[in-house]
Amino acid sequence: LYFLGLTYKKLNRIDEALDCFLKLHAILLNSGQVLYQIANIYEIMEDHNQAIECLLQLISVVPTDPHVLSKLGKLYGNEGDKSQAFHYYCESFRYFPSNIEVIEWLGAFYID
């Protein structure tokens, strides 16, 4: 199911990919890879609230992943919630202080 979902995603058949990953999520509730793929598909579909919800579940599974934390910051920033975006970008910076995107965002935040 995982590789079928990735194949559908690569072929830009997003609905079928989401179905595969949701079925797999029902089987493997705490799989970080599956949760990330579901969140990524929701982000592609521009359903940012669902993507944020999946990423928050993913953070409960892998709380120290700086990429996921920065993605949460980016999504909250796109939604206009600067305080939540700041929180997640700071957490991402704490675990991986060499990410230039995060440093740029934090610098712009402090300048504002």
Task: Describe this entry's structure for a reader.
The chain is mainly α and 112 residues long. It folds into 2 domains: 1-62, Serine Threonine Protein Phosphatase 5, Tetratricopeptide repeat, CATH 1.25.40.10; 64-111, no CATH class. Helices cover 80% and strands 0% of the residues. The protein has 7 helices and no strands. The chain has helices at residues 2-10, 14-27, 32-44, 48-61, 66-79, 82-95, 100-111. Helix 1 packs antiparallel against helix 2 (14-27) and helix 2 (14-27) runs antiparallel to helix 3. It is elongated. The model has no long low-confidence stretch (mean pLDDT 95). One of its GO terms (biological process) is kidney development. Keywords: Cell projection, Cilium, Flagellum, TPR repeat. One of its GO terms (molecular function) is kinesin binding.
